[in-house]
Amino acid sequence: MRVAQLCWTNRRVAGAEAHAERSAHGLLAQGHEVAWFHEGQQPNTRPVVDCPHQIEADLGALAAWQPDVLLNHGLLDPRVEAAALDLAPAVLVTHSYYGTCISGSKTYRWPRTSPCTRTLGWGCVLRYYPRHTGGWSPSALQREWRRQRARQSLLPRYRAVVGNSRHMLDEYARHGVPTERLFEVPFPMASAAVAEPPPRDVPHRLLWVGRCDPLKGGAVLLDALQALPATVHLTMVGDGPARTHWERRAAAIGPRVRFTGWVDDVTPFYRDADLVVIPSLWPEPFGQVGLEAARFGLPAVGFPVGGIPAWLKHEVNGMLAARPNDADALARAIRDALEPARYPTLARGALAALATHTIPAYVRALERVMEAVR
What we know:
Elements: E1 2-7, H1 15-29, E2 33-38, E3 53-56, H2 59-65, E4 69-72, H3 78-84, E5 90-93, E6 107-108, E7 114-115, H4 122-128, H5 138-154, E8 160-163, H6 166-174, E9 182-184, E10 205-209, H7 218-225, E11 233-237, H8 243-251, E12 257-261, H9 267-272, E13 275-278, H10 289-294, E14 300-302, E15 318-320, H11 327-337, H12 343-353, H13 359-373
Parallel strand pairs: 1-2, 1-4, 2-3, 4-5, 5-8, 8-9, 10-11, 10-13, 11-12, 13-14, 14-15
Antiparallel strand pairs: 6-7
């Protein structure tokens, strides 16, 4: 089968591009022909995606390649997307709230940060500033409203929508995609579990990994840390606009909080930690950090928002806090996960959870979808 993967860039910029690259490699390994169509060369220092056939911003060349199916991992220009959909049956691969939210965060930030479950419409514009669902630029609001509405109008043209969590499929069901066109596929992990980790001493080392953005919940995690014993330490790996604010809050806690900034390889931090904490306040479409940590036998703790419950099973491979955006509930979940009697079971559960998130399993599921839409 000739499969064209559509993506806004041919660089490894974020998780969606890495996901699409894994998809390409998996499809190639199964004997499919794969082309990577992107909207144009981006001025970026990130590595170029490894795909043998690259088509840059040329719909004519894409048509000449004669794909059997299109996999759209996210394009910027809805006009390019609309033209591409004329060329072959298409599948939308969901990595974000594509066509369902103006800002893409799917979150109210006032009066309290909480997930939004509205369908995209004029009511979103009316709530944009009062509920702080995006930034403050009127031009950005207008631009993104038009872009997301255009994407929304193209949803009926997709033969299928695939997602790594039931949460994302429910999102598109609310936006009118028929249930028979919605398919859940496993998240494709780039590599399997490391060798069985050595037995750990009494667990007490927490790890947070991500972009320092308020919606990632770092402030709530710091509040939770203060309710935990002084023997519990926290390492925060990443950078972003909220880092300075979080560092100021951490100064009141003392030396048991460490900030590293961006690092090229998180592996040493996974190896040195006992528990990964994912205190996201926004509804993460999936939350792959938890599975990345699971490769090293790390259980996870997080809030039950978005796609996180798709892989984080309470008392199996970690603990879900009882309530979102609640520091006390997060502290209790962390304390429960670190209990010496429970921790080894959760660590084994973390390793076991990887078994269903392999690239071959993902490709097999994707092949079934592609055969259904041809």
